[in-house]
Amino acid sequence: MSIDKNTVARIANLARIRLTEEEQNAMTKEFQSILGWIDQLQEVNTDDIPPLTSVVEVTLPLREDKVADGGYPEDVLANAPKQAAGFFVVPKVIE
Question: What pLDDT shows up at residue 57?
Fold first, then answer.
């Protein structure tokens, strides 16, 4: 896969990034270099290698799933500027 200057200009336009002619040339070379590395990585045979989630064997510590705090809706809503039926009332932001 290759990338040309027009593609870089299009990507920059979609990302709302203004690039000078010089920057477009530099980005084109950088993208081509990155894609070259990706092509090189695809040549590696990984058929006998199992998928990994980590390179080291780690068991994450788990905590007990229990309710530790809560049940104080009156305290939570005490400083709310406006509330109704146990909920915060906020101004409508989407028309």
Answer: 84
| Residue partners of 94: CB distance under 8 A and separation at least 6 | none
Q: Locate the DSSP E strands across the chain.
A: 83-84, 87-88
**Entry pTM:** 0.50
Query: Count of H helices and E strands in the chain?
Result: 3, 2
How far is Cα 49 from Cα 79, in angstroms, rounded to an integer?
A: 57
Do the beta carbons of residue 35 and residue 11 sit within 8 Å?
Answer: no
Give the span between the Cα atoms of 8 and 33, in whole angstroms.
13
- Both tokens of residue 59? 């068991």
- Three-state secondary structure call for residue 92: coil
Contact 77, 88 (CB under 8 A): yes
Compute φ and ψ for 7, nearest 5 degrees.
-65, -40
The C-alpha angle with vertex 41 and arms to 11 and 29, in degrees rounded to 5, equals 35
